[in-house]
């Protein structure tokens, strides 16, 4: 068997890249289709690649695609010579055993690895006999998260050569109606723009992208190796009233709730800015820039506080002050003069920030604590669990803590756990020229609180996903899924909402439940942690999702390696052949590791409540928080 595929790592040279590309004379991708079907924001995408071995000897043929980080792979199949080889999702430990056996026979494992901010790479290969064909088929599923008032379906196309029969088909069905649909991304511009067809008819929309082989060489990021870029389908659904939308089928329901016609709530926001020595240079500059922009965006009835910290804590003002023009000018001057120095006392910084919000609590305002750091705690309290327990005690569920981890030297798991324990989320800020925009973009997501302390109540509903949300921000969305007791529609659905007969809501329920159990598993400890983990594992297996707790085992034709595919952690760049179960030594940071949900969107940053009966929702709004 001759190997024509050279393995590359993320740091590989361009030269190495060139040699991985299929040689026209060796094998040819004669068809490449991407088919996405979106129903109620739940996207199922199938990538089908058909390849022929043009040589008169057997060749190793590679399948190599990029999918959104947020997605769970649910199916992978190879069709070779009338045989189907299908991946099976197994518990990680079990897959590990098969993997070890394969390794002991000197075989390598397939893998999924992180690429950049939003994508993951899926890679596998198989040996195909002379003049034979292989079809690769990968299915992945994701629930789209609404941010900045829209949904975005990202489709990455990089078939590694111009393909005669290349197609992207997207079909969207939204019962509430599609208010707009746009196609963006690098592949939607210039020479490729006229390869796109978009049709929009009230509840349905279709996007077709059929570039010719010549067009595939002509776009900005394209060349002799064909296309390499994104097609991003951007859309939103119509929202007529405050009820949101409840869809149900086969005993399951999904409730999307995103009111936007509510008055904003003034906020009390405290920014905790790490100015330790490691922030030196561009990071501190970008932080200053972002902070100044953010201050400019505060509304006059907002109150804010600024704390910078290294080994010591510096309050700009001891108290929260109103965002009037005089205070803002002073604060911006302070921001312009933030200098990097010293170590990192995260514990004191968060405790003092929490204290500020506790002391200056204002009835009818939404309090928010935002921590920006680029490193581990190095002074004051440095025991991570102790810090988490101090912080939890200080915040006591009263407001959310958002943690922004700048770069890759942060212990992101620590920040993530601390956020989740305090009703917030953690976000990684990538060290890049647009870091200030990432910071500002995050702030904008939480800039307009519309509701606080949200509890969703479903009479006649059971096995609900998360129903309590600390705050709901304009442009975001609350999604709750569950099962309907005895499948009794009458007592459950408000009359104003159309009933869908489409299938698939049980998968939305499973997807949300798994994501939330993984969050829970991260923030809990002891027996509760085990329970959450076991439930997440059980559902991952039942619905065949490749999650951080499961792996997919792909058995290939006789005599070939077994592939074990596993979902990487945020920031992880595994080496080829890395075992599916985390090992401390393989970690870039050298820290002990644990199974943990990869950084994905979470629901805990959204929210709005209503009372017992869904059809009472609108009148209740005005009474609850003003
Ligand atoms: C895309 O997938 C859907 C759902 O499986 C299917 O109904 C449809 O025919 C597919 N479209 C194409 C062009 O293959
Ligand atoms: C097929 O293989 C034979 C012997 O290995 C070689 O002589 C011949 O040129 C090959 N034909 C093609 C089309 O590659
Ligand atoms: C919320 O967002 C919508 C849509 O972008 C906008 O029309 C509305 O004014 C916003 N509400 C507030 C209070 O800013
Ligand atoms: C859903 O709830 C019912 C009881 O209401 C319970 O019997 C069933 O096991 C639950 N299913 C799951 C998957 O948790
Ligand atoms: C959700 O909030 C309600 C009302 O505040 C409370 O009674 C309930 O215990 C909360 N549930 C969870 C799971 O936190």
TrEMBL record:
Per UniProt, subcellular location reads as: Secreted
What are the VIT domain coordinates in residue numbering?
A: 13-142
- Supply the SMART domains for this chain: VIT, VWA
> Highest taxon of the source?
Eukaryota
A Gene Ontology cellular component where this protein is annotated is: extracellular region
GO MF terms on file? serine-type endopeptidase inhibitor activity
- Per its UniProt record, what InterPro entries does this chain match? ITIH (IPR050934), VIT (IPR013694), VWF_A (IPR002035), vWFA_dom_sf (IPR036465)
The UniProt annotation puts the region (Disordered) at 567-605
Tell me which UniProt keywords the record has, alphabetically.
Answer: Glycoprotein, Protease inhibitor, Secreted, Serine protease inhibitor, Signal
May I ask which residue range the UniProt record assigns to the signal sequence?
1-20
Indicate the segments forming the VWFA domain, all copies: 268-446
Q: Which PANTHER family match?
A: INTER-ALPHA-TRYPSIN INHIBITOR HEAVY CHAIN FAMILY MEMBER, INTER-ALPHA-TRYPSIN INHIBITOR HEAVY CHAIN H4
State the family it belongs to: Belongs to the ITIH family.
Q: By what name is this protein known? A: Inter-alpha-trypsin inhibitor heavy chain 3
Q: Which organism is it from?
A: Amphilophus citrinellus
């Amino acid at each position: 068997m001759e190997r024509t595929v050279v393995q590359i790592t993320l740091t590989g040279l361009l030269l190495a890249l060139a040699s991985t590309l299929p040689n026209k004379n060796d094998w040819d991708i004669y068809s490449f289709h991407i088919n996405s079907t979106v129903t109620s924001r739940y996207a199922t995408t199938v990538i089908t690649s058909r390849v022929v071995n043009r040589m008169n000897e057997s060749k190793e043929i590679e399948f190599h695609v990029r999918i959104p980080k947020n997605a769970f792979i649910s199916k992978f199949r190879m069709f070779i010579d009338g045989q189907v080889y299908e991946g099976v999702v197994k518990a990680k430990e079990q897959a590990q055993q098969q993997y070890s056996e394969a390794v002991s026979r000197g075989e390598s494992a397939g893998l999924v690895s992180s690429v950049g901010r939003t994508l993951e790479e899926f890679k596998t290969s198989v040996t195909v006999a002379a003049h034979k064909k292989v079809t690769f088929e990968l299915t992945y599923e994701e629930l789209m998260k609404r941010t900045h008032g829209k949904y975005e379906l990202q489709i990455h196309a990089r078939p590694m050569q111009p393909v005669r029969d290349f197609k992207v088909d997207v079909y969207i069905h939204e019962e509430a109606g599609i208010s707009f649909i746009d196609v963006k991304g690098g592949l939607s511009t210039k020479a490729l723009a006229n390869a796109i067809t978009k049709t929009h008819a009230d509840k349905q929309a279709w996007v077709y992208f059929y570039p010719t082989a010549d067009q595939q060489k002509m776009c900005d990021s394209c060349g002799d190796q064909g296309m390499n870029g994104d097609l991003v389908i951007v859309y939103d659904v119509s929202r007529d009233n405050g009820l949101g939308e409840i869809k149900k089928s086969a005993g399951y329901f999904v409730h999307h709730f995103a009111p936007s016609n509510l008055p904003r709530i003034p906020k009390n926001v405290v920014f905790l800015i790490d100015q330790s020595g490691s922030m030196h240079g561009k990071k501190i500059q970008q932080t200053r820039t972002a902070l100044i922009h953010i201050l400019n965006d505060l509304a006059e009835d907002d109150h804010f506080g600024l704390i910078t910290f290294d080994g010591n804590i510096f309050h700009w003002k001891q108290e929260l002050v109103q965002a009037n023009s005089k205070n803002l000018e002073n604060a911006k001057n302070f921001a312009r003069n933030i200098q990097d120095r010293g170590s990192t006392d995260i514990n004191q910084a968060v405790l003092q920030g929490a204290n500020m919000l506790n002391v200056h609590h204002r009835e009818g305002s939404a309090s928010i604590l935002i921590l920006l750091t680029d490193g581990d705690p190095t002074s004051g309290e440095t025991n991570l669990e102790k810090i988490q327990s101090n912080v939890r005690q200080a915040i006591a569920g009263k407001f959310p803590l958002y943690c922004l981890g700048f770069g890759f030297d942060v212990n992101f798991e620590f920040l993530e756990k601390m956020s989740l324990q305090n009703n917030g989320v953690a976000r990684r800020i990538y060290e890049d020229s647009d870091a200030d925009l990432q910071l500002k973009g995050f702030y904008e997501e939480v800039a307009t609180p519309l509701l606080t302390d949200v509890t969703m109540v479903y009479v006649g509903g059971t096995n609900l996903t998360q129903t309590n949300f600390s705050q709901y921000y304009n442009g975001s969305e609350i999604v709750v899924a569950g099962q309907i007791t005895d499948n009794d529609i009458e007592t459950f659905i408000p009359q104003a909402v159309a009933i869908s007969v489409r299938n698939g809501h049980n998968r939305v329920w499973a997807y949300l439940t798994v994501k939330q159990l993984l969050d829970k598993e991260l923030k809990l400890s002891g027996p509760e942690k085990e329970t959450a983990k076991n439930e997440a594992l059980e559902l991952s297996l039942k619905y065949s999702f490749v999650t951080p707790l499961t792996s997919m085992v792909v058995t290939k034709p006789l005599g070939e390696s077994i592939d074990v595919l596993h979902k990487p952690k945020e920031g992880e760049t595994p080496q080829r052949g890395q075992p599916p179960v985390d090992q401390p030594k393989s970690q870039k940071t050298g820290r002990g590791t644990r199974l943990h949900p990869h950084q994905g969107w979470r629901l805990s940053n959204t929210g709005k409540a209503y009372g017992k009966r869904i059809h009472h929702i609108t009148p209740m709004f005005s009474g609850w928080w003003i």
